[in-house]
Write a structure and sequence with these properties.
mainly beta, globular, 143 residues, 1 helix, five-stranded antiparallel β-sheet
């Protein structure tokens, strides 16, 4: 009689690998702070970290702490995933949040009832530890 074949455990979820440019962002996230780059020349905010301003091509960028507030720009409720690392998380909400400062950020929406989700609702960035001293931004709907 053949034994039951057990499925291998799911693979580990991918984690960010900070480089010199993104390290301040990830270090702040670990402390529960959302940093954006702001151009000292034109004042525009941007995300993700780059070595120059996308608006004016200036190179004088500073890190500022964002408010963490924004609006749900678009979202999708994931009921099935092709990536086994995320299979235990379904259903989950993958979204794009437009921050009050302007840039858009891709996140998961957490701690929010699915039936309350619609585009343009206010959200706030919250941080989730994913182990290995890594914290990622997510968003929560604000009532």
């Amino acid at each position: 009689m053949a034994g039951r074949v057990e499925s291998p455990p799911p693979p580990a979820k991918p984690v960010p690998h900070p480089d010199d440019l993104s390290r301040p962002y990830w270090e702040a996230a670990r402390e529960g702070k959302l940093l954006l780059q702001r151009c000292s020349s034109c004042g525009e905010h941007q995300f993700y970290p780059r070595p120059f301003c996308l608006a004016c091509r200036g190179s004088e960028l500073e890190w500022i702490e964002a408010t963490g507030r924004g609006r749900l720009h678009t979202f999708s409720v994931v009921h099935r995933t092709a990536d086994r690392a995320f299979a235990a998380d379904v259903p989950y909400v993958f979204a794009v949040v437009e921050l009050d400062e302007g840039p858009r950020l891709t996140v998961n929406v957490v701690d929010t009832a699915l039936e309350t989700l619609e585009c343009d609702i206010p959200v706030r960035v919250v941080f989730t530890s994913i182990g290995d001293d890594t914290t990622v931004p997510n968003a929560r709907g604000e009532a």
